Amino acid sequence: MEKEKPNSENSVKYIIHKPLAYGKKLYIGEFLAEKFIKLVAFISIAAIFAIFYYVFQEATYAFKSPEKINEYVQKSHLNSNQNTSSDNLKQESYNSNSDNSTSPSTNQEDLKQESYSSNVDQNLKQESYSPTTTEGELKQDTYSSEKDVPKQIVETKNKSKLKKIETSVETPIENLTESDKQAISQRAQILKTSLEETLGEKPITFKEMFSPNDYIDNKPDYVWQPVGNTPKFSFIPLFYGALKVTMIGLVIAAPLAILAAIFTVSFAPKWLKEIIKPAIEILAGFPSVVLGFFCLMTLATVIQEVFHTTYRLNSFVGGIGMALAVIPIIYTVTEDALTAIPRFMSEASLALGASRWQTAWRVLLPSAAPGVFAALILGFGRAFGETMIALMATGNAALVSNNIFESVRTMAATIGAEMAEVEFRGVHYGVLFLIGAILFMVTFSLNALAEFYVRKKLMKRIQGL
Amino acid sequence: MKNVNIKISTKNLNLYYGTKQALMDITLDIPEKQVTAFIGPSGCGKSTFLRTLNRMNDLIDGVKIDGSVYIDDINIYDKNIDVVQLRKRIGMVFQKSNPFPKSIFDNVAYGPRVNGISERSKLEEIVVESLKRAAIWDEVKDRLKSSALGLSGGQQQRLCIARCLAVNPDIILMDEPASALDPISTSKIEELISELKDNYTIVIVTHNMQQAARVSDFTAFFYIGELIEFDKTKTIFTNPSNKKTEEYITGRFG
Hints:
The complex is a heterodimer. Chain A is an all-alpha fold. Helix content of chain A is 68%, strand content 2%.
């Protein structure tokens, strides 16, 4: 039991201590490293917040009139008393525009003065759809061919509507008193509302998003119909669809992934473990577009043949796709949580005569409950925000139905499908960002709920802590 | 050794970790309802030997065992042995107290539950009885529902003993049960061991030779995977026949 004393004179002679004294030394390398790490951490956090801020800010356009309407209303009414006669010409340019549409005699400069929208030139170019004769207008035609054609058609349609309204509104020119200004602003409000209604660019409200916005067979219904004379933005079908696909995915993925993790941790021989674990982890990096393609082309056909479904692409096919994407995530996190349980825990159980299955089920899994729970939350977040698989495999029909073999449209897939068709900073644009914001808030609140409430309760129930 | 029955006997037991041999040709008879202590310096194989007695070494990859271990004249390394059934009859207490992250009640009730007892009244009876036998009942009777992890180290260790008594084993293997405890907890565990030996065959591994001298009836001295000497504790500590044993006991090495 004797302990050998280390021979201090020989073995540690290379480390020589100075006598202890006051005074700090600045280690420049450490100092810089610390500052650099702080900076990087700050930048990454700031970048995340900047993205959130941008998303939420852009989402506000859903609740605002589109800029072009606002600007038009403003220009034609509120600023009118400050206008000189030459400025007036700009304001009145709609008249000249309407002249333009009827008689092609107006010149280019006249058109350029028109300024009811921020992108003046583009709007002007749309005018070239009217029968053209002059050289200038031919030029505009060549311009317009470079632009996005469908958008132009829509805007031209809107524009012609605008013009119709414009002709019915008289613009005040004389100097104004306060009461006149009030009258003008009232008029502007009326004009704005009527414009919004005519153009179908009415800002939405929170109430509209979550209440029935259509009647089908005399039953209130939730409809997502973002394009049309009266666009209908109900979030219910999208939210419901996302939840449905996610739940189907989790119901399939969670048992498979958790059982697979239990198998690798406490049943599989070492060589098999070394194959299974990396194989499933590689799956986590599998591009979701490939999974989506597989679901779209192969799985959908199989499912239709097996279940004789009406619709080839439906939420069940999408759910299986989600499960394929989510299994590796749940598996990896659960496996880590199970592996992290100290060996003595399972030894204690086995020494008491528990079988391996009893040990896994009654000791390992409850002990790893926080990890398993985190895995499920992660999987939920992944499936809820998964875009490509939803876009390719769910059918994208915004239906509210309890049948798992009917198509659904998820929130993320809606952004993916419609982002290319919206007008910049229009209502629809804002609504898509709002969906993004809601997606974020759902995952965030779910995580918060899990962290602060459910987990504690769960732990108490399972582990008696 | 004539007047006691033999509970466990090993014959020519060899154990290899991969290519390294950890136990060399060990032949040993452990008497029934007595306390047998294994002593020896670190790494001498006494814990490994203990774990062969309930086949816990099966769980470690790369372990190869030959030879035989008889418990009640049945070779536990026979192909037809159900390891789960075997372990139910052999309780084990580990060096580090390892209660499950469950309530005190659930910890003790775990063994009976995996044995298929689910009736609440029976479980309660078993739990109370086991806690009383492990001399911890008075300390925990008011907090059976609270987590076992909230107990002190000594209490946790006695809880583990209670948990192991709850499955009604014949043999209790203890792997340095008091090595991480303070003297008061240690003495409680030692008292407990001497109470339990009336009903159970106890095998204890210890680093503490005073402990071995205090609690055990028989002592085996291991050195580098070999069984050097096995005899009554008194004989070992007063008149060892092997020089190595004498050197170790007198503290000349180890």
